[in-house]
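>> Question from a student workshop board

For tomorrow's exercise we were told to take the sequence and the ligand below, predict the bound structure, and bring the output to class. My setup keeps failing. Could a helper post the expected result so I can at least see what it should look like? The ligand is fe (ii) ion.
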Amino acid sequence: MTDDNTPITRVLDGANDMLTDRRSFMSGAAKLGVGGALLSMTGIGSAAAQDDDTEEVTDIDILNYALTLEHLEAEYYTQALDHFSERDFESFGSPGMMTFDTNLPRYETYQNYEKIRDHEIAHVETLTQVIEDLGGTPVEAAEYDFPYNDIHEFVDLSATIEDVGVSAYAGAAPMIQNSDLLSAALSIHSVEARHASYIRLQRDGGSPPFEGQEGAFDPARTMDEVIAIASQFIVSD
Ligand SMILES: [Fe+2]
Ligand SMILES: [Fe+2]
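>> Workshop helper replied:
Here is what the output should look like for this input. Compare the format with yours to find the bug.
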């Protein structure tokens, strides 16, 4: 069974230009209403968006788009690990206890979220450095409001945020012109997928991470779709 919205399906249908056309990326940005704060943070200007015959999305624009999401992820885990204790992750009824029936993986749950947080911080630092090296201006972190009240809601939201990251890289990567940057983006993409797998395991109480999503190909998300989700958590830029 395949998902009709995957890039591979679009290729087979001869309709892949929706995700690979750089102008589509720009015009999608121009249509934003709800994602205005995020759009301004990405540094993608509205003037360029209004004149997409002459302006083109650059690799720096796409890297800033990725950096916007990485800032969000890094701050998300930093806040959560300040807010929740090891006990919240591992005690009776916790995601760690519900997922792992042996002690070692259960009692490493908090530490594994620390590793995920550190990956996100490394993504922020590396993307920032690459954008500067290319002569661009890296976007700054915003202020965020993440809607969870307990550890289970946090795990649910983590799965959503990681899935958004995975699909965002899949949607944006085909528009990157520099092959070295594409390789770098793909090296982040697979790490985000690993985060998503670990967190889904906990969200679903130990069921395989592909439970309920059995297709051999994943959908990609356009910039519009990503921003509509991510902007819910951004309260200021
Ligand atoms: Fe990341
Ligand atoms: Fe991640």
